[in-house]
UniProtKB/TrEMBL annotation:
This is Signal recognition particle subunit SRP68. CDD domains: SRP68-RBD (cd15481). Belongs to the SRP68 family. Component of the signal recognition particle (SRP) complex, a ribonucleoprotein complex that mediates the cotranslational targeting of secretory and membrane proteins to the endoplasmic reticulum (ER). The SRP complex interacts with the signal sequence in nascent secretory and membrane proteins and directs them to the membrane of the ER. The keyword RNA-binding applies. Residues 1-23 are annotated as: Disordered. One of its GO terms (cellular component) is cytosol. InterPro entries: SRP68, SRP68-RBD, SRP68_N_sf.
């Protein structure tokens, strides 16, 4: 009731200032705030987390709005022009205020998502930008309460509440007020999600889901929730622009927890060795990598999708590489103490061994993904189908990884039992990978129609698999999954070698018929424009006269009609010296005419 009275009083004041002949009822503008902002954010950078691009879009949009509304701030000197209720005569004035708030918010988020995080000065600037966003969002809410319809007013209220909650969330203070703001925004979007078209309902539900982690985190900070750290991490894996502040806050909290945990970590255990860790950054990086390894090797690892595991492996590699860089910096700055250098070198070698093991695991995961797509038919989604050559390349990488790990573990004089066992495991894995590589190389030759090579490679793969299987069965702690995989490989190699042998015999039987057919298809000129090389041009190479088995174009003998060729002819002689020769005078030899006496006077 109070809001309606204020609205009516505002309308009376506005009408009193307008001449009586121009008094009309104030129109109510409609702005679908959530849909408008979501569309702009997804189209201009926030789909990929590019807040700088979105800020540039907001600036350009504001420039166009100011110019089209003729609401500029002077040409030479800046003259401030405030936007009030009386100023809003069309809906673009509301867009002006909304995009100004978005520009300030995107600028703050740009600073928040810097690679190394904002420093103290940047954080102060970030909070200032968020305050500016809250100011413009509050003005937008006030204007919509007078000039917007009921739905627009509700959306503006939710938008302003979210901005205020984000500011308090970043300031790490007044968690109860931030919780109240987020809950208010969630209640509005839950109510709005019950009405309107399907697209609007989906957007409102997505917004509610994006606000939920921030609400749970506020409850956790207040102490009204028993939220565990693992649950916070799982919430941080959600996507959406509204969650970026929460993710940054969660990362800072996790880093602080790792720092506290790292204070009690004094040694690193690897392959039966213990290495002291004195650098705090090294301890934090190793702890971060170990936490990520628990996600991959834990009980819930089987439910993780392959793409998620690959992302986790990338994070593990980054953490261990960061630890190695810290160790090598310590090696450079270390004193002449040989004991310290030996400990740091041993720690670097241990982390290198773990990196080698994780690299092998990651490449094995890539092999598993590639195998699942090997026999798959291309579907409507245009999903890439794996070729045998790609698996050969992956097994080449695995062979290189195992060789590097074997060299690293085998180096050194006093080797522990764990190091010897890992070296033996590397040898065994190398035999398995060699057999697998040979098998898929045979598949590659088979798809190219080369039966003899494929048959020989399948036989070689079968013998390699048999040797690896015998060695694995003689080991003390045999891996049953690997034994099963080798038996499958042995059987497939045997069956495929028989198939290739049979196909080779069938093709040999049909060879005369195919040869006569191909010879009959040889043309002098032909109509095919796409010919690699004519038969007359490759007489000096040992190739089939009728082309390869997988050739789709009939071979051609020679180009007909033949192309024009230059023909030699007699040289053209130009007498250039004639004009330069000075010939002798012949006047003395010329016959003179005799003239009479009278003709002398007339001559």
């Amino acid at each position: 009731m109070a809001k309606q009275k204020e609205t009516s009083a505002m309308e009376i004041d506005d009408q009193a200032s307008i001449p009586s002949d121009q008094i009309t009822t104030n129109p109510k503008f409609s702005v679908n705030v959530l849909q408008l902002l979501k569309s702009a954010q997804m189209q201009h950078g926030l789909r990929f987390g590019d807040y700088a691009r979105y800020r540039r879009y907001c600036t350009a949009r504001l420039r166009r709005l100011y110019k089209s509304l003729k609401f500029t701030h002077g040409r030479v000197k800046y003259t401030k022009r405030a936007i009030s209720v009386a100023t809003v005569t069309e809906v673009r004035f509301l867009h002006l205020v909304l995009y100004t708030a978005e520009r300030a918010w995107s600028h703050a988020m740009e600073k928040k998502t810097l690679p190394d995080g904002p420093n103290a000065r940047q954080r102060s600037y970030l909070i200032g930008r968020l305050r500016k966003a809250v100011k413009w969002a509050s003005l937008f809410q006030e204007l919509c309460s007078f000039k917007g319809d009921s739905r627009t007013s509700l959306e503006a209220e939710a938008y302003a509440a979210y901005m205020k909650g984000s500011l308090l969330f970043e300031q790490d203070q007044n968690w109860d007020v931030a919780l109240k703001c987020f809950k208010s925004a969630r209640a509005v979007y839950e109510e709005l999600g019950k009405y309107g078209d399907l697209e609007n309902q989906v957007l409102c539900r997505e917004r509610v889901e994006e606000l939920e982690p921030s609400i749970r985190y506020c409850l956790h900070k207040i102490g009204e929730s028993n939220l565990q750290t693992s649950e916070l991490v799982s919430i941080g894996e959600m996507e959406g622009p509204a969650l970026d502040l929460f993710k940054a806050k969660l990362e800072a909290a996790m880093a602080e927890a790792r720092s506290q945990q790292a204070a009690s970590m004094t040694e690193f255990h690897c392959l039966g060795n213990r290495f002291p860790i004195s650098n705090a950054k090294t301890r934090v990086s190793i702890l971060k990598a170990q936490e990520l390894e628990k996600d991959i090797h834990g009980s819930a690892a089987d439910s993780l999708p392959a793409e998620k595991k690959l992302v986790l492996y990338d994070k593990i590699f980054a953490a261990y590489h960061e630890a190695r860089s810290c160790i090598r910096n310590d090696l450079v700055t270390a004193a002449n103490s040989e004991n310290v250098k030996d400990e740091l070198s041993g720690l670097d070698k241990a982390i290198g061994a773990i990196l080698g093991q994780r690299t092998i695991e990651r490449n094995q995961l890539l092999v598993k993904i590639a195998k699942s797509k090997l026999n798959k038919v291309r579907d409507d989604k245009n999903e890439k189908v794996t070729k045998p050559e790609e698996l050969v390349r992956l097994y080449d990488l695995l062979l290189q990884n195992t060789a590097d790990l074997f060299d690293l573990v085998s180096s050194g004089r006093d080797r522990k039992t764990e190091e010897v066992a890992l070296a033996e495991e590397c040898e065994l894995r190398s035999m398995v990978f060699r057999a697998e590589r040979c098998f898929y190389l045979a598949k590659s030759y088979s798809s190219a129609g080369k039966r003899t090579e494929a048959y020989a490679l399948y036989c070689q793969a079968r013998s390699l698999a048999d040797a690896a299987l015998k060695k694995l069965q003689s080991a003390n702690a045999a891996d049953q999954a690997m034994i099963k995989e080798l038996k499958t490989l042995y059987n497939e190699s045997r069956s495929n070698s028989c198939i290739e042998h049979a196909k080779g015999i069938m093709e040999e039987e049909k060879a005369p018929e195919n040869l006569s057919k191909k010879i009959s298809n040889i043309s002098l000129s032909g109509t095919d424009k796409k010919v690699e090389k004519l038969l007359m041009e490759k007489m000096d190479t040992y190739e089939s006269a009728v082309g390869e088995a997988n050739m789709k174009v009939a071979p051609r003998i020679e180009t007909f009609p033949p192309a024009f060729q230059p023909v030699p002819r007699n040289p053209i002689v130009l007498d250039l010296a004639y004009n330069l020769i000075e010939f002798p005078s012949l006047d003395a030899r010329m016959k003179k005419d005799k003239k009479g006496f009278i003709s002398r006077f007339w001559g």
